[in-house]
Amino acid sequence: MKLYYKPGACSLATHIVLNELGLSFDVESVDTAAKKTAGGRDFLEINPDGYVPALELDNGNVLTEGAAILQYLADQHPASELAPAPGSWERTQLHQHLNFISAELHKSFGPLFQGAEGAAREAAVEKALKRIAHFEPIFADGRSYLMGETFSVADAYLFTVLNWTGFVGISLDEFPNVKAFHACAGARAATRHALEREGLLKAA
After folding, report:
1. Is the CB of residue 67 less than 8 Å from the CB of residue 98?
2. Beta bridge partners of 2
3. Over the stretch 72-95, which tens digit does the pLDDT of each residue have?
4. CA angle 13, 19, 21 (to 5 degrees)
5. Looking at residue 168, which CATH number applies to its domain?
6. pTM to 2 decimals?
């Protein structure tokens, strides 16, 4: 397999999950502005939409859309417990988390990465904070992860998006439960290895 990624982008979630599964895979970075891979290939030939992640499987098929990739990987390796069994109530809860992260939290960072300034930035920060606040009561019972004490693909995605706060100047201090989750997920070996490989964390 090969993961096409941009350092620190939403593709980081897929990178984390691949590490959690202990799979053998290659990575290739993408210049999403130029639509070129590090190897010089036209990225639009891989994903016509031009964004990461894209996961090229061993049979040549290419998967796109982060939430779909995460669930595919979990379902291919059910013993990993990275996702509850399909059709279960717990799986529906996982879908709920993934959908909120993708449609609400992830998208709220768009204006901030696009350089919003002044009132536009203030509005974008306020919206992002409201979306982050959604998760604060979920962790109020002391749970380590969204589904309890078992790390799931939704946790990989949530960690990835929360990690963007450091790049856009948003503090998590008013969300102690969320901040604790971010630290917990960030301390996992699979997460640290992905961050190191993407040049976002110095190797120990």
Report:
1. yes
2. 26, 56
3. 999 999 999 999 999 999 999 999
4. 105
5. 1.20.1050.10
6. 0.97
